[in-house]
Amino acid sequence: xxxxxxxLYKPQIVTVTDVWVETPTxxxxxxxxxDPKVGDNFTFKAxxxxxxxxxxxxxxxxCIANSPTRxxxxxxxxxxxxxxxxxxxxxxxxxxxxxxxxxxxxxxLEEMKGKKLMFIGGGIGLAPLRSLIQNVLDIRKDFDQxxxxxAARCEEEFVYKREIEEWKASSDxxxxxxxxxxxxxxxxxxxxVSFIPSILEEMKPDPKNRIVITCGPPIMIKLVTAxxxxxxxxxEQIITTLEMKMKCGLGKCGRCNIGSTYVCKDGPVFxxxxxxxxxxxx
Amino acid sequence: MxxxxxxxxxxxxxxxKLSRETVVYAPIEQEGxxxxxxxxxxxxxxxxxxxxxxxxxxxxxxxxxxxFSFRAGKHSVEIIDPPKDEEPLVLFACRPCEMRxxxxxxxxxxxxxxxSQWNERxxxxxxxxxxxxxxxxxxxxxxxxxxDSSRSDGADAIIYTTAEGxxxxxxxxxxxxxxxxxxxxxxxxxxxxxxxxxxxxxxxLQEEMMENFESPTWKEVAPACIxxxxxxxxxxxxxxxxxxxxxxxxxxxxxxxxxxxxxLMLAHQPRPTQYRRYRQKVMHKYSYYxxxxxxxLCTGCGRCIDQCPxxxxxxxxxxxxxxxxxxxxxxxG
Lengths: 282, 333
Known about the structure:
- Chain A contains nine helices and 15 strands.
- Chain A is an alpha/beta fold and 282 residues long.
- Helix content of chain A is 25%, strand content 30%.
- In chain A, the strands form three sheets. Chain A has a seven-stranded mixed β-sheet, sandwiched between helices. In chain A, strands 4-3-6-1-2-5 form a six-stranded antiparallel β-sheet. Chain A has a two-stranded antiparallel ribbon with strand order 13-14.
- Chain A folds into two domains: 12-103, Elongation Factor Tu (Ef-tu), domain 3, CATH 2.40.30.10; 110-241, 3-Layer(aba) Sandwich (Rossmann fold).
- With 333 residues, chain B is α+β, with helices and mostly antiparallel strands.
- In chain B, a hairpin with a 4-residue loop joins strand 4 and strand 5.
- Chain B starts with a strand and ends in a 12-residue tail after the last helix.
- The relative contact order of chain B is 0.16.
- Chains A and B meet through strand 13 of A and strand 4, strand 11 and helix 8 of B.
C-alpha cells in the first residue's frame, strides 16, 4: 500500500474502535480505516506487520494480530514500554492512529494445509500466532489436528483471555496452558506449572506431517527449538517470526538486518532452518 | 579530444551567474571548515584540490528531513505534505567518489519500494564533478575500491584541473546546459590519468568476513571505537536512518550503527558489545550490501579516517578484516 503521492512514509489514518486490556501492561487495539476505499482494498496475510503511528509520539512496529479472514479492521497488541507505546496506551475508542503496511512476508498457509499444526506461544508472542490461529480456525477443515501450547509468567499475563476460553470450549483445537514454575505460583486447575520444553519432553510431539509455529521471548524460542531438535524435529518444520527493531519496514533504514537478511523484507517469518544459517546475532 | 577550456575567472563568473538562477552548492570554507554550502549564503568557492569535511550526501539524504507534518486532535488528524524542494540544484565540484556514493545508494533507495524523497532530490540535481588526478589527501583510497577518479561517467559533467586552466566536458543534457554559462572555448585536451595513488589493497572481503563471523579477531579490529558515530555522519554512503516525531513533524534522521541504541529493544539487544556493533558497520559495507546489491558500500574517501577522534584508520581495519583468524569454537581440528 503506497500513499497516493508516492511518499512511502505517509500513513493511512485509522480510528480506534475497540480497546481490550489484556494484562496490566498489554492492550489490544482494534482499528478501522477512515477512508472506506482504503479499508475495502486492504488485504494482508497472517504473519505480516505494520508501522503504527501515535502522532506526536512516533511510530512503532507491531504485527497485525487478527486474521485476514476477519475483515474490516486490523488489531494490534502492544506492551507499554516507552514513549510511543505509552502514548498508544492512553488512547481510547474514537482516537486516530496512523498505519502503514502490510509489510514483510507471511506464514506459509498453503503449505500448511492438510497438516497437523502445533502453535507454541509465550507471553505477547501469541500475538502474531493469533493471526494465523484465527485464520486456521476459520478454515478449519483444511487442516489436520491443531494444538496450541501457550505459556506466560503467570495467569494474569495471559493475553487474549476471552479467546483462550473459546479455544478451551472448542473441539477444533487442543489447548495446553502453562505458567512459569516460579516461587508462590498460583494458577487455575487447568493450567500447568511448567516451562514449555518440559511439556514438549512429556508430549513428544511426532514431527510426521506436522508443523510447529512458535513465537515468544528469544530465550523461549531458543529453548523450544533446541528441545524439538532433540526430539528429532527437522529444522524446516519449525517456523517462527522474529522481532527486530525496525523503523521503516521497507528495507532502507538499515536497522533490522541479521547478516544480509533484512527481517522487514525477507521476514519476519522464517523457518528454523533459515535462522540456523544466519550469523548468530539475533 | 576537444573539451571546454575554462579559466578560473570563467568558472567564478559562471558560478555567480548560475547561483543567481538556481541553487548552487559548492565547497565553501567558513570558520575553517570546508563543506558543501549554498553559494547564495556567501563565501568563496574552493576550486583547489581539497576534501570537504562532510560528504555531499546531505543534499540527497538530509541530516534531518521532514517526511510530513500533522495536526492531530483527539478525533481528527490532518497530514500535511512537506514543502517540496522542486527547484533545480547544482552540486558543483564534488569528487568522483561522491558521485559513486550516490549511485551505490540509489540501489537501496529503489529496491522494491522507491523512496520518492531520495529520487526527487536526485532528479533535480545537476552534478558537476571535479576529477581527482591525484589523491586529495593521504587518507584517500578510492583506487582500492575500483574507482578511477579521472572519470565520473554518472555525473552530468566533469571538470579537470591542469596547470594551464580547467577542461570541462558534459555527460548529459543537464550538464551541457550548466556548462554553457561558463563560456570558454573548445580546445584539444590532454589525456587525463591518475597518479600517486597509494598501493591498492584487497577490499573483496564479502565472503571471507561472512565465513569468519565468529572470528576472535573482530575484537581486535577497532578496539578503540567509542561509538561516537562521526565516521557514519561524514560517510558519503552510510544511509541508515531513524524516524521520530518532533513537535508536529515526522522526521527522518541520520542514525549510526556503532551506537548502542541502534538495535536496543525492550527484551533484547542483538549487539550488546562495541565490537559487535563495529562488525555490523564493516560487514554492512563490505559484505551485506555487496550480497544484496552487488556494490561495496564505501568509496574510499577516507573521511572516517580524517575525523575519527580515536585515530582509527579504516584502511587498517579492512586489512585486519582480510586476515580474520578462524573461530575458536567449532574448529574441531
